[in-house]
């Protein structure tokens, strides 16, 4: 019907069906699937609307992972989509027909099919054809003229998104790297622990030494004070004894001088004085 | 290709036609189509234009009985 059942895409390898009960494919390729759906539609004409509903349901309930779940890192998106000629027919169709019919094969097939449909009026030319032609021409003109600009704009949007994500990632990496450096520095600092403790130990030893010497000095001072006191006491005592003895001796001597002795001594003194005065007068 | 044309009936007999597996197959086909033409970094018009063309063809097929009345000749 539509150029054969075999114009296929490459489908992912058959190791993804472990979850479902059957282990084989229903449709090897998309065209075959569409062919089957088309056949089903033609046979049950009354259920036309239901298939649209089913399609929309399938679109909304599309599974997130088509093939086996491969873990991170996710493979990057492919750069370009599959090759399509004239925007409608995938390149694989042309490659499929190339070995048997060469380069012009698909074009001859297309021309033949077109003429067949027109001549047998499987495709009827009516007002819709004119409308389709106008719409298609406008669309193609618009795409050809503004396609590159729209693509550049979309690429720019994508670039910005990727750049913000990359910036976040790079900032996170930089932050983590600075954290690593700081951690390494802290580890290096830890190695200087011994010096720190040595210095602290020296400080403490010095403090202890200073305190010890201070207390030694106070002890010395106190002992000296007490000894000085004892010495002063002894001096004072000796002084007092001396004074007392002198006084007592004087008192006793004075007491021992009887009045008779006093008279004799006075008389003697007078005689001496007279003699002295005589000798003085003699010399003069 | 995975299945040759000559082996088609044999291959058709091997796979089961439960609705669940049919739905699974449809889902897989849709996912493979999306991953090939839509989920790419720089896609083009080919992705949706093929879908629209398929939709046009399908709707033409569904309404063929009505369009048949506008044909230009009665006998081809």
From TrEMBL, chain A:
* Keyword Nucleus in annotation: no
Q: Which InterPro entries match?
A: ATP_synth_Bsub_B/MI25, ATP_synth_F0_suB
Cellular component, GO annotation: mitochondrial inner membrane; proton-transporting ATP synthase complex
Going by the UniProt record, its keywords in alphabetical order are:
CF(0), Hydrogen ion transport, Ion transport, Membrane, Mitochondrion, Mitochondrion inner membrane, Transport
Q: Which residues form a coiled coil?
A: none
Which Pfam families did the record assign? Answer: Mt_ATP-synt_B
> Where are the residues of the annotated region Disordered?
1-20
The entry's family comment says: Belongs to the eukaryotic ATPase B chain family.
Instruction: Give a short account of what the protein does.
Output: Subunit b, of the mitochondrial membrane ATP synthase complex (F(1)F(0) ATP synthase or Complex V) that produces ATP from ADP in the presence of a proton gradient across the membrane which is generated by electron transport complexes of the respiratory chain. ATP synthase complex consist of a soluble F(1) head domain - the catalytic core - and a membrane F(1) domain - the membrane proton channel. These two domains are linked by a central stalk rotating inside the F(1) region and a stationary peripheral stalk.
Q: What does the subunit comment say?
A: F-type ATPases have 2 components, CF(1) - the catalytic core - and CF(0) - the membrane proton channel. CF(1) and CF(0) have multiple subunits.
- For this entry, the protein name equals ATP synthase subunit b
**Which organism is this protein's natural source?**
Apteryx owenii (Little spotted kiwi)
From TrEMBL, chain B:
Q: Name one GO biological process term.
A: proton motive force-driven mitochondrial ATP synthesis
Q: Where in the cell is it found?
A: Mitochondrion membrane
User: Would the keyword Membrane be found if you checked this record's keyword annotation?
Assistant: yes
Q: Which GO terms describe its molecular function?
A: proton-transporting ATP synthase activity, rotational mechanism
Kindly list the GO CC terms recorded for this protein. Answer: mitochondrial membrane; proton-transporting ATP synthase complex
What top-level branch of life does the organism fall under? Answer: Eukaryota
Annotated PANTHER family: ATP SYNTHASE F CHAIN, MITOCHONDRIAL-RELATED (PTHR13080), ATP SYNTHASE SUBUNIT F, MITOCHONDRIAL (PTHR13080:SF19)
Q: What is this protein called?
A: ATP synthase subunit f, mitochondrial
Q: What is the lineage of its organism?
A: Eukaryota, Metazoa, Chordata, Craniata, Vertebrata
């Amino acid at each position: 019907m539509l150029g054969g059942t075999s114009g296929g895409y490459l489908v992912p390898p058959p190791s993804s069906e472990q979850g479902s009960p059957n282990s084989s494919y229903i449709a090897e390729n998309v065209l075959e699937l569409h062919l089957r759906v088309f056949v089903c539609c033609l046979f049950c004409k009354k259920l036309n609307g239901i298939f649209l509903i089913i399609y929309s349901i399938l679109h909304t309930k599309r599974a997130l992972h088509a093939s086996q779940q491969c873990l991170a890192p996710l493979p990057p998106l492919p750069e370009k989509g599959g090759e399509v000629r004239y925007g409608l027919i995938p390149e694989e169709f042309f490659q499929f027909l190339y070995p048997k019919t060469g380069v012009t094969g698909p074009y001859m097939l297309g021309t033949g099919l077109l003429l067949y449909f027109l001549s047998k009026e499987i495709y009827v030319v009516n007002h819709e054809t004119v409308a389709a032609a106008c719409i298609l021409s406008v669309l193609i003109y618009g795409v050809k003229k503004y396609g590159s600009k729209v693509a550049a704009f979309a690429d720019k949007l994508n670039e910005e998104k990727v750049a913000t994500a990359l910036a976040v990632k790079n900032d996170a990496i930089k932050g983590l790297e600075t954290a690593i450096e700081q951690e390494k520095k802290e580890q290096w600092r830890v190695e200087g622990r011994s010096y720190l403790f040595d210095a602290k130990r020296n400080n403490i030893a010095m403090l202890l030494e200073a305190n010890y010497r201070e207390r030694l000095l106070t002890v010395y001072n106190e002992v000296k004070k007490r000894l000085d006191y004892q010495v002063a006491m002894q001096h004072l005592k000796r002084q007092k004894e001396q004074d007392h003895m002198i006084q007592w001796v004087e008192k006793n001597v004075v007491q021992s001088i009887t009045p008779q002795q006093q008279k004799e001594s006075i008389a003697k003194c007078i005689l001496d004085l007279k003699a002295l005065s005589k000798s003085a007068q003699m010399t003069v | 290709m995975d299945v040759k044309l000559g082996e088609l009936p044999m291959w058709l007999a091997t796979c089961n036609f439960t609705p669940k597996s049919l739905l699974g197959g449809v889902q897989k086909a849709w996912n493979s189509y999306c991953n090939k033409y839509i989920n790419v970094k720089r896609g083009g018009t080919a992705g949706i234009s093929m879908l629209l063309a398929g939709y046009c063809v399908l709707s033409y097929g569904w309404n063929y009985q009505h369009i048949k009345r506008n044909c230009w000749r009665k006998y081809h």
